[in-house]
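hey so i finally got around to running the thing on that chain from the lab meeting. sorry it took forever, my laptop kept dying and i had to restart like 3 times. anyway pasting the input first so we r on the same page abt which one it is
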Amino acid sequence: MANVSAEAMLTSVLGTEGLLDLFGACVEASARTPLHVKRRMLARLLAEGYGEPDPAKLENRVYMARILNDLEQPHFLLLKELASVEEATLVHLATLLDPPQFVDSTLSTLSRNGLVRTVHQFLSPRYPTSYSELDGQPGAPQGGRFAITILGRDFCRWAEDAAEEL
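ok and heres what got predicted. didnt touch it at all, straight out
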């Protein structure tokens, strides 16, 4: 991509619907974040999408850019922890955040993006109204344990590779 002029890239972006979507998602996400590494990851996504002939792979990159737009440092912290263990409880995950009260909203964001699920959600289509309702409740399904999804693992691997390359 270093050998491509800005004019040639702009022409390509404007001429390819999927690439235009990716460009828009990356620009929007990078405009909303103070995290330098996140902006670099978005630039990497755009570079990977440039010249991608497969519309499905391009759409996957658009989805990843939209996920990145939604995530901040606490989300990456919990995602990395869940990628390193089989599953974790709400109480354990709360010890990783300061203040720990943010764990519920952080997990909600990860779940909304399909990156984590409660162990109960893997077993049942019924979603709880709040993750805290699953934790510490007598008879609560699976005791409020959380696990990373396949998409979450793939995203975490990609994010770690992208961060290492930067």
